[in-house]
Amino acid sequence: MARKVVSIAHLRELLGEREKELTGLEARQKKLGAELKQVEARIAGLTGRAKGAGRGRAAVKGRGQPARGKKTLKQAVAEVLGATRKALRPKQIAEALPNVGYLSKSKSLSVMVGQVLSGSPEFRRVGRGKYRLDRRRLGGKAAKKQGKAEAVAVKESESPVSPQ
Question: pTM for this one?
Answer without folding.
Answer: 0.46
